[in-house]
Structures
1.
Amino acid sequence: MVTARRTSPRASTVRRRATSLPSILLLASLTLAALPAQGQGLRYAEDQAPGIVNPVFTTTMPEARLNELVFEGLYTDNQNLASVPCLAESSELSADRTALTVKLRSDVTWHDGTPFTSADVVYTIEAMKNKGTLSTEKGRVAWIQKAEALDDHTVLLQFERAEARPEDKLLFKVLPAHKFSGPAIKRTDPFRNEPVGTGPYRFARYNDDNSISLESHADHRDAVSIHEIVMREVSDKNYQAKLLLYESLEALVRVLPRDLAVLQNNRKVDLYPYQTNSWWYLGFNLERDPWREPAVREAIGHLVDVEALLAPIGTGDTLTGPYVKSSPYYNHDVPSWDYSTSRAASLLESAGYAQDGGQWSRDGEPLTLNITAHQTLESSQEVVINLQSQLQSAGFDVQVEFLDEAAWKARIWREHDYDLVLSQWTFDRNEDIRDQFHSEGARNFCSYGNEQVDELLNKARDTTDPHEKKAALREVHRLVHADTPMIFLWTLDSYAALSTRVGSVVIHPFYFFTFVHDWRME
Amino acid sequence: MADPQLRHDDTPSSDLARAGSWKLVFPVLRLVAVFMLTLAGAVLAIQLLLWASPGDPVDLVPNGEEIRAQLEAEWGLDRSLPERYVQFLGRALRGDLGSSLTYRPGATVTELILPAAGRSLRLLIPALLLSMGLGLGLGLLTAGRSSVVRRLAQVVSVAPVFLLAFVAVHLLNELAFYGMEAGWFGRPGWFALPDTDSAMKSSLAILVLAVGSGALAEVHAAVEDEVVRLRNATFVDAAVARGAPVWKHVLWNLLPPLATIAYGRAAFFVGGLVIVEKVLHLNGAGSMLWQACRLRDYPVALGITVLAAAAVCGARLLGDLVRISVDPRLREVAQ
């Protein structure tokens, strides 16, 4: 029998000699493990490294944060979030508020040593407005009718209409004209891999592990004390806090709520709370039945226990409209939907639904609902599963699905193939919700339309009176809440976590690194 | 019972091995034809998968909808699937795999995937060798007797590579962390996995690939069977009678089955590489394929697929050559 099992002296010899081979291979591979420690500098984690580095094509927060280190705008924020000159030295607004003469700093050089001039500002504005530049940032210059270089360090900006505080809108990053060959900027331009800015850090390299290394810009007017910053790609958010504890990172932009307690109790980590202009929402597809019926949307508003959805994922403020509570545009007079199954039932009955065996149906068709969420939206799984449970117990047939970025864009934005989406919007301090709620808004995938809201949004855009703008946007808040194209959920409390080796830390709520020149590192 | 002398040629992929050394032309041509057909099939399969998945690269371009028609024409997405397929094959035959659309816009696929493939090969080849070596060693150790080692190896090996990698990373990190906190040792150069690139991380990837998803168990079982068979073989007894070293005969005769297993496992190793590189944050062709699929970067995904299919087919060819060079009986059978 070939399967007989016995041992013999010759077999033992064979075993001894042959087993030495894998042992040698294993030992050899493991003894290679000792490597020198990593270089000094600040390492921070992002979920995904940008494929290109060009502020004209910014679509994600990791890109916006990286841009803040490498590029600069004419104006920037101070620690009170008020506009202060950056590449600009001073400016003068015309009497009719339709033109601004900007005097530029003369002590600025690009990272490649070329002097910064007004030609760069004019080129950036013209290129961003150019139809051939498929920029996501067009809106940031759409209000500028014309840019003209008066001399090497003076630019005249003429606006489409009178502007109240144009400096607040001059935050877009300026690009080096000498690095581009045509009037339009393309994603495939070589600039994508060799970006040149005027910021405190210059792009050093893309590393093999998808991380991006930045080095301090020696000629920058504000010397930084941290000489190297590395953006590490750590796609698993659950692992980012571990890496901070292990001292493999020095900064986490946002801590997951479940990691807060662990980091708070660690003597090597400091937590920094900050307020973002982000809010979560459940968006209806207003092109599809029965979600185009206000009574059905409002009924769901009464069936969603927002506090119960928020509790497992962190702390924050529940909202009734499209602004965070600290915003001047938030309308505090708008009441939240009370959680009421009886109110929801009467609304559904008024829409022709009847409950049979606990399940809502109309004309024999059960009331079904498909909840769609983005895969990468933090904590979305907990929220969606709990929401599914809430609505199922209220008599809905609920399905859930999670989509990646491409599927999300195709299904939600392009094909409008959804019932209810769970998502989040994040804004800079201008809090411009026009794209989301104007009937012609580029990001209005819910297909919401209300003439009164359109007029108010136009008014808020065009007025130079801040009080008028505030009143118009507060009214928008009220109207949008009443129309319920979305159920507004919450804004989450945000915490950054940094190693105690990093000191003098002040965090910008949107761009994060705006005040990095003040940061110190042991 | 089959004649043990003829056991090596009963695998379905031994066309080359069945041929004599001077009669290799036809089998080689046939192998090349199979190689090309496999590549074409792999390209078709990945094109179908990408086509069927929701969303396309234009969806991932900011403001892409505004210029969808322009981009679709530029990227060839306005053509039918068969047209795209033929166009890709035609270009690939000329060595042009196109340019990246969304992963690294504008970069040529060749300049992206060749360095990544090099990094992946530095994991794959040692993993394959280590798998064979470990399986051989354990097989020789446990052949013909009941052994705890065998059961342990099988239990560990049956775990999928992602689980092994995850558990290994977690354990190593926690051990190192507590060791450092307790002051037992300083910070190791590899700490913390998988964020820090180090030889330790590469070694771990190699080990996981070599052991996980049944790789070690398969080699181990095959070696055990073969060793038991060889112990009863008359030519081994003859060698013993002559006073010749037995281990040389055994190892030499183990090479053909090991080669068969090695090229049979090549496809699994390439598949496992995608997972291992993802879990361990290794920037090779596997993680690039993952990213390319996620970003619907069709040219990059297709380029890596072609490369992977070529690697698997190449492994098969190499395996056949090893077998035929080691075992003269295979040539005699063919002649």
2.
Amino acid sequence: MHGFFRWSSKWWPGTIPLVIFWAIAAWMNTGPLESDLAARSTAALKDTVLDKSRVAVAGRDVTFAADAFSEEGRRGALAAVEAVPGVRLVNDETRLIPEAKPFVWSAERDVVRVTLSGSSPLPSSKGRLLEAARAALGGVEVLDQMNLSRGAPPRFDNAALLLLDQVGKLKDGKITISDNKVSLSGMARDLGGREAIAAALKNLPEGFSVAANEVKAPPYIFQAYKDPVAVTLTLTGYVPDNNVHAAIVAAAGRKFFSEKVVDNLKASLGAPSGFAAAVVLALGGLSRLSTGTLVVSDREVKLSGDAFYDAAPSQIRSNLVRDFPQGFQFKPDISVKPAAAPVDATVCQQLFSELLAKGTIRFESARSTLDPDSAGLLDRLIETALRCPTVNIEIAGHTDTAGENAANQALSEKRAQAVMDYLVKAGLPAGRFTAQGYGSTQPVSTNDTDEGKAQNRRIEFVVKE
Amino acid sequence: MVYLATFHWGWLLASLLLGLAMGWIAVVQRGQGVSKLVARGLSVLVAALVAAAIARVVPGRAGYWLDLGLVMFALYLAGCTVGSWLRNWVLSGHAKAA
């Protein structure tokens, strides 16, 4: 034993190379050791859910900073780093992300972009929301201004995903979740979009409720444009369904006797009640204009253009105001077209004949009441009569052979008189007109067919020098 | 410790071999050894360093270097012990054989 102490007292010279070894080992290995530990620690954190995770290694000590989403998650991550072989100490700089109260998330859409803002519970749900937004809004820029917070209501992700789908149906607007209350505002992209959103909101996950749904539908617009140069009537905008569509196009065909009807209407939900009746009535007003535009926007009817003569604007206005369905507002802006140059008797007769060849003055069946559909034609006839201030005009009524001759004679006289009354009401001097009935004595076509009979039932304007 | 050993096995082996060699030489060396007082002082110093390492009071890189140095020193001492003992055994064996 004494020998052992004697030997050991002579071991010291070896410590000089030992210290040199130690210095070299420390010099060469510190860097690789630190990066190895950093890599192992990062790998150990792979399955944990953290935000802003940061690992710094000095020697064998790891400084670990991260934002955790729950206390258990924070402890678990810390334990995972502590368990990495070779780690001596862990400097804990982790913290819990702040709790949002109330927990507010929103998606706001303007014309070119969608901004997601507010709180999101986890990085994974944040990513999923962004991805869903990009998918639902193909091509629209998606801006992410979401931060991460604790305190999300249960099933938040499902609710937010459902609402992101609705953002696609908005033209602009904002959808907000505040705790478990959902509020929506803005303008639907399409007609019917508001209804679709309201239906989708019924599928919100359990616990969520709609606090406010202020999504507006775009106005339900119907437009008609009468173009006197192209001689067309162009219909654009929406109609509620195919039946109404057909009815409107048919009414336009009757009211606009010479114009070609260009039909660009589309069917869509969301029409105000009384839409079809209001449109047909307003088309009647438009038919009495030389050139004009009709815009029906929700319940507001705007009719603008030029009437043929001075008395017409007030007649049009009062007729429409009287007959419009409940709730419709009529905003006329009708001026009178400048009077055309006077023409001589021959041209005058020619103009009358041309007009009456294109259209027929109609009456209620077997009666002498003028059909409102003929108002457009009558106004054109009045305009022509105003251009012939010097001539006398006979208004001649004719019937087909159906029924008794005496009755037909009386009907033809009454109908001619009705037309004359209409002309006088428009401001033409009564003295220049005579109403004459001819019954069925002067057919222009056969009375054996319905078509022929229809041609024989007519009013003619005959210029008398 | 296992991690340190696997990461630095080359240097630890070198320390051990150095210790073996030093121990082998020390038995027959005639030079002056350290006095008991100095040896005691050094022991206290080493004990203090070991205590510091176990308590992990030295932070960061210095702490790592301390650990590494102590492990190398421990292996060196072990090498010395085995070397000296072997040399002594060989010498006494020879003496008996002679």
